[in-house]
Design a protein that fits this description.
Bound molecules: zinc ion
Radius of gyration: 25 Å
Strand order of the largest sheet: 1-2
Oligomer: single chain
Structural class: mainly alpha
Length: 132
Amino acid sequence: MTTKTRDAVKYMRRWEPTIRATKMARMLGVTKARIRAILVDENLPTKVIAKEVFQCIVCSTILDKNINFCSDECHQKHFYLTTGCLQCGSPITMYRRQYVRKAEEGERTFCSIPCKHQWYWDNEPTRMGRWN
Ligand SMILES: [Zn+2]
Ligand SMILES: [Zn+2]
């Protein structure tokens, strides 16, 4: 048993009194029995003092179960986002991951092919040859 694990357990129990031994074990990569042994050794409670609080990861609503989202809406908000067509401003809903990838590649977002063509004609006419 390393002092590092011991310190981490003490720290976690001090600052996150609701954390379960199972969770600490998982986070620290040691067995639950080991966590319990440290807690007992340090005269720290082995049982959680208060109920662990679950929150919606989007809007922070307190949940009574260990689920990540309070509603389909928040679920949607987390995985999707709405951006606008660069040409006409129409809202476009897409996967957040997809949006990030596009942003990384400097790819522009349009609602339709006509908007895409229009934008390039107006802004970068020299590149239009690529689509003709
Ligand atoms: Zn929510
Ligand atoms: Zn458009």
